[in-house]
Specification:
The chain is an alpha+beta fold. Helix content is 39%, strand content 25%. Strands 11-12-13-14-15-10-16 form a seven-stranded mixed β-sheet, sandwiched between helices. A six-stranded mixed β-sheet has the order 3-6-7-8-17-9. A hairpin with an 8-residue loop joins strand 6 and strand 7. It starts with 8 loop residues before the first strand and ends in a 5-residue tail after the last helix.
């Protein structure tokens, strides 16, 4: 799956790291080369992820390749809104709900090149420019960020897989998680894994049940909950991801009493595995701890594939979901987002959301 892109454009810039050539969109062969050389590349920093985003949302590619005098190169995954003037649009890496973006740079990024990227983005004409950086890169970007870029706090919970599954099971899984997994294994739960997209409809069936449960938990009208969730996660998106990633996209489904009880979607690139989506029928899944079993199996598979981490995604600090992930040994890692806006659009959006939440007595889960 390849998203349509404009013909590449090149320009020369004077940067804090010296003269640099910028090519946009970034040539795919170079992007893939850097993704293979940068061992910290996440699933969500690959061209495949961008293609899925553009195929299922109102976006087009705006990625940027930076080539410096010393021969080093850096790619910034980036998209912009389609059918919108640049001065009214956004250029982001990534939009909300699409996780960690940020540049790929084999060998790391020093202060001068970090400054070069921020200076280039500061000159963009878009109403909003935003980049969410991956864990481990935070210090250099924090020091380089100019005053015009506002930091937004984000985190992700990551299970370290060093030492193999035996070490993860014995030393990182909490006792309660091991107990839950054994409970599931003793029940009549049957697990199926699909790497061809066949179980996409089953996942969506469970996802609709999850939306209903979340609406009740959050005191949110079901119609609003469905509109909001489907807007963030369109029905065609999982099918696009399953097709784009192929065998690197695994849909795990736990069946109980002949019915789907829980499902998770796990993506993989290089040494990184990512728990992307999860859904369940709580009445079926919770008594037999089906979701715990699915994550245990996915983590074991990631270990066998020589992955170094299992990214379980972002959660609200102190929430029950964060507590669930901590049970698998997930550490909380900072993954900040830096935003530059020409008008206070985000503040207005937050104020509007606050008003709506108060009106419906919304409860954050």
């Amino acid at each position: 799956m390849n998203a349509p892109v404009n013909a590449p454009a090149e320009l020369l810039i004077d940067s804090a790291a010296g003269p640099a050539r910028v090519t946009t969109p970034a040539p795919r062969e170079v992007w893939w080369e850097l993704a293979s050389l940068d061992v910290d590349t996440h699933v969500t920093q690959t061209p495949t992820w961008l293609d899925c985003l553009c195929a299922t949302g109102p976006y087009q590619e705006a990625s940027r390749l930076y080539e410096f005098e010393d021969g080093s190169r850096m790619v910034l995954p980036l998209v912009r809104r389609r059918r919108r003037p640049q001065w009214l649009g956004a250029e982001e890496s990534w939009p909300a709900e699409w996780g960690i973006g940020g540049p790929l740079a084999p060998g790391g990024v020093g202060p001068a090149k970090a400054q070069a990227l921020f200076d280039d983005l500061a000159g963009r004409h878009a109403l909003r420019v935003g980049v969410r950086f991956r864990p481990g890169d935070t210090e250099v970007w924090e020091k380089a960020a100019p005053a015009g870029f506002r930091p937004e706090s984000h985190m992700t919970q990551v299970v370290c897989l060093d030492g193999g599954f035996g070490t993860v099971w014995e030393s990182r899984f909490h006792t309660r998680v091991r107990r839950d997994v054994r409970r599931a294994e003793k029940s009549d739960v049957e697990v199926e894994v699909d790497r061809a997209g066949r179980l996409v409809p089953v996942f969506h069936e469970l996802y609709e049940k999850s939306i209903e449960r979340w609406a009740v938990q959050q005191h949110e009208p079901l119609t609003l909950a469905r509109w909001r969730r489907r807007r963030a996660f369109p029905s065609q998106r999982l099918a696009a991801v399953a097709t784009g990633f192929g065998e690197a996209c695994s849909i795990w489904v736990a069946w109980y009493a002949g019915r789907p009880a829980a499902a998770i979607v796990v993506l993989r690139h290089g040494r990184h595995a990512k728990l992307w989506r999860a859904a369940m029928d709580r009445e079926l899944a919770h008594p037999v701890r089906a979701t715990s079993l699915l994550n245990r199996l996915a983590i074991e598979e990631a270990c066998l594939a020589d992955c170094g981490s299992y990214d379980m995604g972002e959660s609200s600090p102190g929430s029950s979901l964060a507590h669930f992930k901590e049970g698998f040994g997930a550490d909380t890692c900072a993954s900040p987002r830096y935003v530059r806006e020409r008008l206070p659009v985000s503040a207005a959006e937050r104020a509007l959301r606050t008003v709506v939440k108060r009106a419906i007595r919304f409860k954050d889960a």
